[in-house]
Amino acid sequence: MKLTIDNFDGKGAVDYTCAIDTTVAPRIVRTINQPATFECSLLGVTGLAIVAAGARICVTKSDGTFLFTGYLTELPNYEYLGWGEQTPVYRCELLAESDEFLLDQKVLPSRAPFVARSAGSALKQLAQDLLPGGFDLSRVQDLDAIAWYQVNPQKKFSFHVAEIAAAARASYRAMNGVLSLAPVGEFSYSLNESDAEFSPAALKLQSPVTEINDVTVIGLEEPQPYVRDYFVGDGLSLRFYLSQAPFQQNKPALIHERYTGPELDATTWVTNDPSSAVSVAAQALQVSGGTGQDGQTSVSFIELIEMGGALELQHGDVSFTGASQGIIGGLYAGAIAAANCFAGFEIRPAGSQSSIQALINGTTTGTAVTTTAGHRYVLTTYLYSTEVYRSAEMYHSSVHPAGNGLGGGAVGANLRIVLELQDIDPSVPSSWVAAATVLFDDVIQNAPGFCTYALVDAATMQCSIAYTYAAHIALAEVRTALPGDSYVTQLVESLSAGGQCEIASSTTLDFYPQYVPPLNTLIVASYRGAGRAVAEVVNGASIAALAHGADDGVRGMVRTMKLPSARTQADCETAALAMLDEASGAAWRGTYETWNDYLPGSAEDLFPGDGLSISVSSRNASFSSIVRKVSIELQDPANDRGVYTIEFANDLAEALAVQAEASTTTVPLQDLPARLITSQVGSYYLANLTNAEITQITDTTVQIDAGIAPANGGIEVRMRDFGWGPSNDRNLLGRFSTQTFTLPRLARTETYFLRLYDSSSPPRYSRYAAALHVDYPL
Questions:
Q1: How far apart are CA 616 and CA 230, in angstroms?
Q2: pLDDT per residue as tens digits for the range 504-541
Q3: d(CA 178, CA 574)
Q4: 20 to 30 Å CA-CA from 221: which of 15, 69, 268, 521?
Q5: Domain range for 463
Q6: Residue 412 contacts residue 448 (beta carbons within 8 Å)
Q7: pLDDT grade for 468, boundaries at 50, 70 and 90
Q8: 431 in a domain, yes or no?
Q9: pLDDT(687) > 80
Q10: Domain check: are 396 and 434 in the same one?
Q11: Which of the listed residues 437, 472, 507 is the one where a domain comes to its end?
């Protein structure tokens, strides 16, 4: 063994091997998805510098193979041993942490959440954010996508990487300036009692009784019913009472850019600028020129935009200084190119000025606005989706490892897009508060789930952009119309931000005095109700096998998901399925101690995350496991020999990719879902009636269009969102086999709950109800 220490005093790495105190064996501890540590003691040797805090430590074998690299985490501890011939003698105790310690000393930037990123891509981005080019990232594998992950700057790099690796059922390692990420079990070894070098006394096994066949998983607050509330204005009222509390989205801004620095923030923007047309000056993004080709000069957001919930994208206060061609505020379903632009503002030359027009699915549409010299233009996009999350979370188990996870599917949705332009004449103060011009307002069917956001795609542009802001807004789409007129989208936002109304409390829609709805104005508020995500999944075969006598065979547990998060009921079902994957066998954990000469499978070295197959028939033990911890005591460093203590376990004994905790959450009875067997997960529920609406309201009836025609069953309508099924008629309003039907209206306010059902026995239903609420005077 060779120990070198670089005190960063200009002398480089110095060999301290001769100073190792051999009475105390040096020790390396490697734990899965945690920084490795190294401990050793040195005795003072003439000519060697005193070890400094933060010094770099390298431990290698005599052939140069690295066993540990890292940094001292604190000043060495000195133990006085006595007086030598001329000076006092001390034992110096060193404690070092592996290379990620360097990254742990830095504060992660506040950034937008990772969205639909692979685990490897997220790890690389974190490392690049902290120390660009500081680590070799070539051994970081991409692995599966993580639907959503929020970085907390208060936590260290190693904390976040551990969570990302666990979510992908992977292990990470930092050694000799190289970061690696690989699926657990990528390298696998066997421990067989028939091997000549096997030591029975060195193997200790435990197999706790852990039978689970009924798993209830509790997740986060989720969007549930699809609600539409119908009101009519009386010319005086500003407040309207919603039928449910809307689901609350995460509100931190995705982008809040004021261009105050000398260059674009690399944690927010990705710049492609071959002609050096993009710069930051005078607190604005300046674009002067371009290559003349679509898609070659762009400034794009570093993350994808999830096209779910309600979003506001303020592309900025734009000043044009010459005729321009390109796209501002483009959302792209693919590469940045006009043909892939799902929604944006197309800029075209118009003489010495420019024209601005809505661009939808690669085609311009609607009215074009010609710019005026000296004017400024505020361009804003609003998105309203029927679904909040456009991708399910992915979960892993030993049966479904990295690359073959459970869940993670796309979630389809329709999307309303509103593109607005506000023309500001600095010489006319009233233009600052004038109503914006709506260039586009319509629903796009089956919208893409994720888009690349490019603030600028400049073929050749002459403009400056003063700010850019993107954030989730109130998850309510409010539309108004006078009888006989078309509906217009009203912004649910603060008055200072240009809103016409707001949800002032959890269940009230308030219009500002400037925007009081005139007499007979029709008002429709569309949003999602809220409830707790929860699911129960059972393994019927296991229950039947364990049943005997009075024991029904159920072995249950209730857990609250921590990682990956369970944002919806469907996520909870998938997480329960992953937990049940492990429950079919026995739980095993154990340790094995051996010299490195006799490592399992003739391995040269062993790391956490390696697979270890145990085959010891004399103990009735035959199972696959993952190494969780490796401790190495270098008892014979001169000959590169050490004692390895290997700790291993399978996922049933120690969960690896699904982190959950005993639940303290009480779930309301009405939120309890159907109890599913494993084969029903992913196929049990029918489609939700996301497009159900009321088409006509009279004093005594309402006409309903369910949005789809039932093919094999019907549509059940109730007064309350419970009691679904053919055995309960107490709050039933009817069952219908057609897409449109009429219901009685008995009071000023009525709420109708709809679900699709089929002809199964018992029938299956939609996962969530459509709730149609009427508040019209009789």
A1: 69
A2: 777 899 999 999 999 999 999 999 999 999 999 999 99
A3: 34
A4: 268
A5: 255-472
A6: no
A7: very high
A8: yes
A9: yes
A10: yes
A11: 472
Q: How many other CB atoms are there within 10 angstroms of residue 428's CB atom? A: 11
Lowest mean pLDDT, pick from 66-80, 179-193, 220-234, 460-474: 66-80
- 169 and 21 in one domain? no
Single out the residue of 342, 346, 340, 382 nearest to residue 364, CA to CA.
346
Q: How confident is the model at residue 46 (pLDDT cuts 50, 70, 90)?
A: low
124 and 37 within one domain:
no
If you ran DSSP here, which 8-state letter would residue 667 be given?
A: P
Confidence of residue 659 (pLDDT cuts 50, 70, 90): confident
How high is the mean pLDDT of the chain? 94
Measured in degrees and rounded to the nearest 5, phi and psi for residue 104 equal: -65, -20
Residues 403 and 284 in one domain: yes
Q: Which of 614, 622, 620 is nearest to 591 (CA)?
A: 614
Contacting residues for 276 by C-beta, under 8 A, at least 6 apart = none
Condensed to tens digits (0 to 9), the pLDDT of residues 700-727 reads: 999 999 999 998 999 999 999 989 999 8
pTM (two decimals): 0.93
Q: 446's torsion region: left (phi>0), alpha (psi -120 to 50) or beta?
A: left
Give the CB-side neighbour count of residue 665, counting CA atoms within 13 A: 23
Strand order of the β-sheet with 701-705 is 693-697, 701-705, 740-744
Phi, psi of 119 (to 5 degrees): -60, -40
Question: Dihedral (C-alpha) 117, 121, 122, 125: value to the nearest 10 degrees?
Answer: -130
Beta strand spans in 466-500 (E):
468-472, 476-481, 488-490
φ and ψ of 408, to 5 deg = 80, 10
Name residue 223's beta-bridge partners. 530
Please state the φ and ψ torsions of residue 148, each to the nearest 5 degrees.
-160, 135
Task: Report the number of secondary-structure helices (H) and strands (E) in the chain.
Answer: 5, 53
For the segment 639-648, the average pLDDT, to the nearest whole number, is 96
Q: How far apart are CA 532 and CA 666, in angstroms?
A: 10
Read off the pLDDT of each residue in 40-56 and give the average, rounded to a whole number.
83
Q: Long-range contacts for 440-443 (Cβ within 8 Å, ≥24 apart)?
A: 440/343, 440/358, 440/360, 440/365, 440/366, 441/416, 441/417, 441/488, 441/489, 442/360, 442/416, 442/417, 443/414, 443/415, 443/416, 443/417
- Domains of the chain: total: 4
* Inter-residue contact 297 to 291 (CB < 8 Å): yes
pLDDT of residue 359: 98
Last residue of a domain, one of 66, 98, 130: 98
Which residues lie closer than 8 Å to 380 by C-beta, 6 or more apart? 312, 313, 314, 315, 419, 420, 421, 422, 436, 498
Question: Residue 45: which pLDDT band, with cuts at 50, 70 and 90?
Answer: low
pLDDT at res. 670: 66
**C-alpha span between 223 and 476 (Å, rounded):** 12
Compute the chain's Rg from CA coordinates: 32
Q: What percent of the chain has pLDDT over 70?
A: 99
Q: What is the CATH number of the domain that holds 88?
A: 2.30.300.10
> What single-letter DSSP state applies at residue 669?
G
Tokens of residue 336, six digits: 């940045």
CB within 8 Å of 746: residues ≥ 6 apart: none
Pairing, β 376-385 against β 394-395: unpaired
- Could you please report the per-residue DSSP string of 419-435? EEEEEE-TT-GGGGSSP
DSSP string, 621-654: EEEEEEEEEEEEEEEEGGGTEEEEEEEEE-TTTS
Per-residue pLDDT tens digits for 6-26:
999 999 999 999 999 988 999
Q: What is the mean pLDDT of residues 543-558?
A: 93
Contacts of 296 (CB under 8 A, 6+ apart): 272, 274, 275, 290
Find, among 432, 451, 443, the residue nearest to 489 by Cα: 443
**Nearest one of 278, 299, 296, 288 to 468, comparing CA atoms:** 299
Distance, in Å, from the CA atom of 201 to the CA atom of 229, rounded to the nearest integer, reads: 72
**CB neighbours (10 Å) of residue 709?**
10
